User: Fold Zn-dependent protease from Melghirimyces profundicolus.
Amino acid sequence: MNINLIMLLVVFAAFGLVIWAQFRVKGSFKKWSKVQASSGMTGQEVARRILDQNGLYDVAVEPVRGRLTDHYDPISRTVRLSEPVYHSNSIAAVSVAAHECGHAIQHKEAYGALVLRHRLFPVANFASGIAPFLLIGGLLMGAMGLFGLGILLYSAAVAFQVITLPVEFNASSRAKAIMVKEGFIRNVEERGVSKVLNAAALTYVATTLYALLELLRFVLLFISSDE
Assistant:
């Protein structure tokens, strides 16, 4: 079987993993959204407490529309929590809120991977917008120089995703440690926290794996074009 065909099948399998991971994170969030945290604190209250305890009084906590739209904005220094997280006192809500605060703490401490990720973001953002056109155009026109340039730009976008992995895992690790230490959850509730955060982490792993395999497939196509 042709190596490029094999790679295409592997990429499709990785894409299937991405879809499965997305369903899993939604399922985990839905399940643990029905279980109240013993502290009774909402996502907003947990976030505010964590930020204040780490001297981040100037970091705001705001609600944002949608589900699973939670994020930390390093430019405005704001933790934005989706409405189901901001107002809820569930295991899922406090887990997500603590995770986003983990990013704010990383920012304060100039966590290496996060700093690198921020510096790479403009390049990766530009590259991810241009690379698909160069890759498709290069293949359609048989212009392998153009295709090669597309591979280089796509590599920058993939590097950004790879660097994102330690940032996300570290934020989750910080979140779990803080929640237990400060009594936001009891030890018996750690299982639920891990289920929510691990499912979210899996989406990053699956997406990165898919991107890496796509990159490898493009490289093999480029190499085979010279044979």
Summary: Residues 3-224 form one domain. The CA atoms of residues 64 and 82 lie 5 Å apart. The chain has a mean pLDDT of 92. The first strand starts at residue 60 and ends at 64.
